[in-house]
Automatic annotation (TrEMBL):
Belongs to the bacterial solute-binding protein 8 family. Keywords: Signal. This is ABC transporter substrate-binding protein. The lineage of its organism: Bacteria, Bacillati, Actinomycetota, Actinomycetes, Streptosporangiales. Residues 77-352 form the Fe/B12 periplasmic-binding domain. Residues 1-38 form the signal peptide. Transmembrane segments: none annotated. It comes from Streptomonospora mangrovi.
């Protein structure tokens, strides 16, 4: 899958992340009135009234990927399908409700919360969990970065199969199939609000959103007056070269102040956010920076070697502006998207920070 981390990317991730001061449990907010959001979240009186399991007496309804999800009570058996989603759930105070975490080898959890996940059962390491393994965890909520994790043809539990087993699936807003190519960094704010409502933790969600918005605002302010540098964003697999021209990946570049040399409206990105290209297409555009995703130190070194060998006369290589970003920070619905914005902006415009 296009779009964990190199040592440099991990170090930046730990240094940059500014978690809210309060990471209280969901239960602490069970009696707080839910906030209405403008992103598909609704609150109605539930049939259980005061007898609802979470004590709120309210039903939360979420529109997600065109599906309506209804929660009469707070989910108590949750699975995070990627470390990025597990992190978000922990930061929203749901650690005691997590009955499984998946794809754990994709990226490490940030240092400040890694210990909290130590006792959460691991359902898979480098791929989504098999159907049987996910259903055996008996979740009532599964949170995923994309709809791919529910592909029945791959042996994964489908959304319908989860529903038949009394579980609902929440997919990151930017990972919905019809939005994958138009996703934005700020989609994670929608996910924070939605999950905060589902978990009956609006105060924690509000604080997390405030912190994320402040970090993005700091970047915007810092680069407001700098001349924009041109950027090519690529994915290298062996000697295969792909350009990233759309999706949250491209919006990360734009938010960091880069001018993408690949046009998201170009025909090659009409159906998918990435397209295979020839080296000549990079050479002809001569970007001032090249951003590439990495899954570890070996992949970072391999990609750097490939870029330096293939594009010795391109400005990005001559000026040593090759920017490695942890692959996990490019997945939809992760706070890592903001880490990536900060990292890229600082690499593009070091004098602005």
């Amino acid at each position: 899958m296009i779009p964990t981390s190199s040592p440099s990317a991990s170090a930046n991730r730990s240094r940059r992340r500014k978690p809210p001061a309060v990471l209280a449990s969901v239960a602490a907010f069970a009696t707080v009135p839910l906030l209405l959001s403008a992103c598909g979240t609704g609150v109605t009186n539930g049939p259980g009234g005061a007898e609802a399991a979470d004590g709120s007496g309210e039903t939360v309804t979420i529109t997600n990927c065109g599906r309506e999800l209804t929660f009469a009570t707070t989910p108590s058996s949750i699975v995070g399908m990627m470390p990025s989603q597990t992190e978000l759930l922990i930061r929203l105070g749901a650690v005691d409700s997590l009955v499984g975490q998946a794809q754990t080898d994709v990226s490490p959890l940030p240092d400040d919360i890694a210990d909290q996940a130590a006792d959460i059962p691991v359902l898979s390491t480098d791929t989504p969990p098999a159907r049987e393994d996910l259903l055996a965890a008996a979740p009532d909520l599964v949170v995923s970065p994309t709809e791919y994790e529910f592909t029945a043809e791959q042996g994964f539990a489908s959304i319908e199969q989860l529903k038949q087993n009394d579980a609902q699936a929440y997919v990151a807003t930017g990972g919905c199939l019809d939005r994958r190519s138009t996703a934005e960094v700020t989609d994670v704010l929608t996910d924070i609000d939605n999950l905060g409502a589902i978990l009956r933790a609006p105060d924690v969600a509000e604080e997390l959103s405030r912190d994320a918005e402040a970090r993005l605002s700091d970047v915007e302010t810092a680069i407001s007056d700098v001349p924009r540098r041109t950027v090519a964003q690529v994915f290298v697999d062996g000697n295969s070269l792909q350009a990233i021209g759309a999706g949250v990946e491209a919006d990360i570049i734009a938010t960091a102040g880069g001018e993408n040399v690949f046009d998201p409206d170009a025909p090659e990105f009409a159906d998918f956010f990435a397209a295979e290209i020839t080296p000549e297409e990079i050479i002809s555009r001569d970007p001032e920076a090249i951003v590439f995703s990495v899954s570890g130190p070996e992949s970072e070194q391999h990609t750097r070697d490939y870029l330096e060998r293939t594009f010795p006369d391109v400005a990005a290589v001559k000026e040593d502006r090759l920017i490695a970003v942890s692959k996990s920070d490019l997945f939809p619905g992760t706070l890592g998207n903001i880490d990536a914005v900060e990292l890229i902006a600082e690499e593009l415009y070091p004098d602005a920070f």
